[in-house]
Amino acid sequence: MRQIHIALLKIAYHNAYIHPLREGHRFPMIKYELIHGQLLYEGLVEKENFVEPQLADFETCCLAHDRQYVSRLFELTLDERMVRRIGFPLSESLVDRERLILDGTIRTALSAQRYGIAFNIAGGTHHAGFDYGEGFCLMNDQAVAARYLLNRGAARRILIIDLDVHQGNGTAHIFKEDPDVFTFSMHGEKNFPFVKERSDRDIALPDGISDERYLSILEEVLPTLFEEVNPDFVFYQAGVDILQTDKLGKLKVSKEGCKYRDYLVIKSCKERDIPLQISTGGGYSVHIRDIVDAHVNTYKTAIDIFDF
Q1: What is the C-alpha to C-alpha distance for residues 78 and 241, in angstroms, rounded to an integer?
Q2: Which of 170, 200, 219, 308 is the most exposed place for a label (fewest CB within 10 A)?
Q3: Where is the Histone deacetylase domain (predicted)?
Q4: Is 0.85 surpassed by the pTM of this model?
Q5: How many folded domains does the chain comprise?
Q6: How do residues 198-251 score in pLDDT, each as one tens digit?
Q7: Where are the beta strands (DSSP E) in the chain?
Q8: pLDDT tens-digit series, residues 75-97
Q9: Which CATH number covers residue 233?
Q10: For residues 112 and 155, is the Cβ–Cβ distance under 8 A?
């Protein structure tokens, strides 16, 4: 059996497949099940490679979030303004989904330390800050997992690489005064969130940037980033909303360019023997197949590089 672990999110709340997205677009939650099915269909992984997360408990959720905010989430007592900021009607099943995502990222972070790399088939909820939710993110899975590793002495210096088209503002907010976590976000300059936080390093991209320029920037910054930060663990937010087919992304990166982006990040970690946890992140292309193909390419790239 290939030694790759993937946290499988079980969609458990009413009408989970489709939720309204800003500007009239719709977010296909079904992509998680389709990614799972496609990985099995292509023989890339086996059923035994998947692990089902459990509900993260209150104390775990508080590792990266304000206790009062988490209490109000659990009790479903967030005020209307915060609910609007999140973008979802608040429900117990939605909070449970976020708790599953958090636990999945923690589990796969631990698996990455054993096998080199592991995935959460969902996650990448990078808009959730210390005491707020935003942009369809209630809690921040990679931030919680980072604090989990640090608190247990399982890592001493963490690098979070966020290549979703939207800035990882919540991640930056959580770690803005934490010397043990370095946040890097390369994102669309004029895209959501329109008020940005300050990551440890931000690269804001103009609308319409295509493969050659996008990849040359990333190829230039990654070696310097690893040398400067010297991490012993990496989290990667691998959103595929940089695709030219994306309804919200405003960039012009091809599917092949997106795959090479993943190659650059994964290869950088493999060459340096640094464990890597990957969360799926965003993707809003018109055709669900484009989203699923791009996400599956991330897994294919990892399997090739790690020779699973």
Answers
A1: 29
A2: 219
A3: 26-297
A4: yes
A5: 1
A6: 999 999 999 999 999 999 999 999 999 999 999 999 999 999 999 999 999 999
A7: 5-7, 18-20, 26-28, 50-51, 117-120, 158-162, 181-188, 201-205, 233-237, 276-279
A8: 999 999 999 999 989 999 999 99
A9: 3.40.800.20
A10: no
